[in-house]
């Protein structure tokens, strides 16, 4: 598991990219000497497999919140959802709203719509029934109890991927095969995500960590799950196999953030040399990988209202992991510790050291209005979190100052004249 920080500038070095990406040689060293014995690890594993059981129970998962106004409202919702799909290429697309309007079916409805509008169904002679069934299986294999890594995130990433595929450089060069794989990879890239990160799976001896030898454990699992569902649905069984599974895997594996610097330095080199040639299939595949990486971490580039909601959700998931760790006396992952972190701080670090470097290069590659819009939001959102944090800090220090002053007044009211300031 290589987290290569060598290409990062000195000032960003001190930041625990390690923390943000939850990688960590340092972290693993701690795990090795971690006092958490096999007993508590086994407990956690049991807990996780119970959660898995719970989540995978179709009785619990598949049921959307019941709609008291019944089908009349459903019709209205469907109409509104259709209207939204007419503007599916808008960067302001509100996936939370779309998910409500489709009764929790955002991933199915969006992906089906995109397949249809790209003409992929006719071109690849896809069976509509199989396609729907396949998409429903995908949607159901995301765990709806995860605050962040659920089907709505997958739908959002798929929508962002579509926006990137529509950018001139890609739209002019991507083949139908590329489009099919790009959308499939986006829709499945976090399939069956357990809601905890790789270091957690490793230190609790989760079977997935052993299966994938501690390396891109989650991403391998997402990929293999996707291949499993493709096979089960027989959606593409009439097409030549070629290297479809491998390409799908290579796209999904690219979303492993601990490997971001490898992709980033390759991307930079290409851009510096100006040698990307999108008639070349290998180069197109590389750009698809980068596009999917961008789509996966584009939350901070969305309008504030949406961006903030995603941030709160991902932090909730991190903190939930931290709570499990504390409860089971495991080392609490720094990023997951609600006692020492705030949404604002996590976001500012994420934006500065993970998102910005990637989108700066993407904007060099595709210097369009969309890229400018994304960079604009990124900068505003970062400002937003900074202002929030500063206000909070000012408030906290004012509050504690007041507390101290009034405590001092209480205990020392005779010695301290009114209005005197303690330094
Ligand atoms: C959304 O998907 C569900 C499940 O496949 C389907 O019943 C519904 O008709 C779809 N709605 C739209 C607007 O496509
Ligand atoms: C994975 O990491 C754990 C904990 O560091 C270690 O005990 C185990 O041997 C590793 N497995 C492999 C296949 O490297
Ligand atoms: C500041 O503190 C007060 C009381 O402690 C609280 O009511 C208020 O919401 C806080 N404002 C901010 C911006 O955190
Ligand atoms: Zn993701």
Automatic annotation (TrEMBL):
Pathway: Purine metabolism; 3',5'-cyclic AMP degradation; AMP from 3',5'-cyclic AMP: step 1/1. It catalyses: 3',5'-cyclic AMP + H2O = AMP + H(+). Transmembrane segments: none annotated. It comes from the Eukaryota. GO terms for molecular function: 3',5'-cyclic-AMP phosphodiesterase activity; metal ion binding. Residues 384-404 have a biased composition (Basic and acidic residues). Binds 2 divalent metal cations per subunit. Site 1 may preferentially bind zinc ions, while site 2 has a preference for magnesium and/or manganese ions. Its cofactor is a divalent metal cation. Its EC number is 3.1.4.-. Residues 1-41 form the signal peptide. Residues 381-423 are annotated as: Disordered. GO terms for biological process: signal transduction. Zn(2+) 2 binds at residue 190. AMP binds at residues 149-153, 190, 296, 347. The active site is at 149 (proton donor). CDD domains: HDc. InterPro entries: HD/PDEase_dom, PDEase, PDEase_catalytic_dom, PDEase_catalytic_dom_sf, PDEase_CS. Pfam families: PDEase_I (PF00233). Zn(2+) 1 binds at residues 153, 189-190, 296. Keywords: cAMP, Hydrolase, Metal-binding, Signal. Residues 73-392 form the PDEase domain. Belongs to the cyclic nucleotide phosphodiesterase family. PDE7 subfamily. This is Phosphodiesterase. It comes from Oncorhynchus kisutch (Coho salmon).
């Amino acid at each position: 598991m290589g987290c290569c920080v060598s290409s990062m500038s000195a000032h960003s070095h001190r930041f625990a990219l390690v923390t943000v990406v939850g990688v960590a040689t340092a972290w693993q060293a701690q795990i090795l000497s971690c006092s958490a014995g096999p007993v508590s690890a086994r407990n956690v594993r049991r807990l996780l497999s119970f959660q898995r059981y719970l989540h995978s129970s179709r009785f619990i998962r598949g049921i959307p919140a019941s709609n008291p106004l019944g089908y009349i409202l459903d019709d209205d919702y469907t109409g509104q959802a259709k209207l939204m799909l007419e503007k599916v290429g808008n960067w302001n697309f509100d996936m939370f709203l779309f998910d409500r309007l489709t009764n929790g079916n955002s991933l199915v409805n969006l992906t089906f719509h995109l397949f249809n509008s790209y003409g992929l169904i006719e071109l690849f002679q896809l069976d509509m029934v199989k396609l729907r069934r396949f998409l429903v299986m995908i949607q159901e294999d995301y765990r709806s109890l995860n605050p962040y890594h659920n089907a709505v995130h997958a739908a959002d990433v798929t929508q962002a991927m579509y926006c990137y595929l529509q950018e001139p450089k890609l739209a002019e060069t991507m083949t139908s095969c590329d489009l099919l794989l790009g959308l499939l990879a986006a829709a499945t890239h976090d399939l069956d995500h357990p809601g905890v990160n790789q270091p957690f799976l490793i230190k609790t001896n989760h079977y997935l960590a052993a299966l994938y030898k501690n390396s891109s454990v989650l991403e391998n699992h997402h990929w293999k799950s996707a291949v499993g569902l493709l096979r089960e649905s027989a959606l593409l069984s009439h097409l030549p196999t070629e290297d479809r599974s491998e390409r799908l895997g290579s796209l999904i594996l690219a979303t492993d953030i601990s490997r971001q610097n490898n992709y980033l330095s390759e991307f930079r080199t290409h851009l510096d040399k100006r040698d990307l040639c999108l008639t070349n299939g290998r180069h197109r595949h590389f750009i698809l990988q980068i596009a999917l990486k961008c789509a996966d971490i584009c939350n901070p580039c969305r309008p504030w209202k949406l961006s903030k909601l995603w941030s709160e959700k991902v932090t909730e998931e991190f903190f939930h992991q931290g709570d499990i760790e504390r409860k089971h006396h495991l080392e609490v992952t720094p990023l997951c510790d609600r006692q020492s972190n705030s949404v604002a701080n996590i976001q500012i670090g994420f934006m500065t050291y993970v998102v910005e470097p990637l989108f700066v290069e993407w904007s060099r590659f595709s210097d369009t209005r969309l890229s400018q819009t994304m960079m604009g939001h990124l900068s505003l959102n970062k400002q937003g979190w900074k202002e929030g944090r500063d206000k909070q800090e000012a408030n906290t220090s004012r509050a504690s100052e007041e507390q101290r002053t009034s405590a001092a007044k209480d205990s020392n009211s005779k010695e301290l004249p009114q209005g005197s300031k303690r330094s």
